[in-house]
Specification:
Layout (H helix, E strand, L loop, with lengths): L2 E7 L2 H8 L8 E3 L6 E9 L2 H11 L7 E11 L6 E6 L3 H16 L12 E7 L4 H11 L6 E4 L1 E7 L8 E8 L2
Length: 177
């Protein structure tokens, strides 16, 4: 059963810029820059027939390329932070692309995504990092101002069953045109 998700890839130069924020936070497990991405829709552990149907449906997406802008560093989890992220500035293009992925995956028989879409790039998974330490880290570093790239395609990634963070394998790529 493959574990699948759709995402936008992060270009190498943007990944290198984001990697400069690695370090300085106790309890952080940093993702390798080659595994940075913006998740659009998590499909989960699905059977092969559903995976093939999902891949086929994703091939029907017709969207134009668009700019993706990173808006700063943040954390998910509030009082119990669980991830350090670079926020992606929501745009109509990324919101509409994600909504189309959601509709297509529902058509493929997958349940609705329960979480509200919050576009981001996960930089580190946090374990036993205090909210204070994360706040201090964020206060010192600010965030990646002005980083942007043009999304020319989205991909269907697979990952091995693990605690997250890769390695991710591109199973299919779909151009934005």
């Amino acid at each position: 059963m493959p574990r699948l998700f759709t995402a936008l890839e992060i270009p190498d130069d943007i990944g290198a810029a984001l990697a400069t924020y690695r370090g300085g936070l106790s309890g952080a497990r940093w993702l390798d820059p080659e595994n940075y991405h913006v998740t659009l829709r998590f499909l989960g552990d699905i059977d092969e027939d559903t995976a093939q149907e999902a891949a086929y449906l994703l091939g029907q997406v017709r969207r134009a390329p668009f700019e993706v802008t990173l808006g700063g560093l943040d954390a998910f989890g509030g009082a119990r932070p669980r991830a350090l992220i670079a926020r992606v500035t929501p745009s109509s293009a990324i919101i509409e692309l994600q909504a189309e992925h959601e509709r297509l995956m529902r058509r493929a028989g997958l349940p609705a995504e329960k979480r509200k879409f919050a576009p981001h790039v996960t930089l580190a998974r946090l374990r036993d990092s205090s909210a204070r330490a994360v706040a201090d880290y964020l206060g010192l570093r600010g965030g990646p101002p002005g980083l942007s790239f043009r999304a020319e395609r989205f991909v269907l990634y697979s990952s091995r069953d693990s605690v997250g963070g890769g390695p991710y394998v591109v199973e299919a790529a779909y151009p934005l045109r």
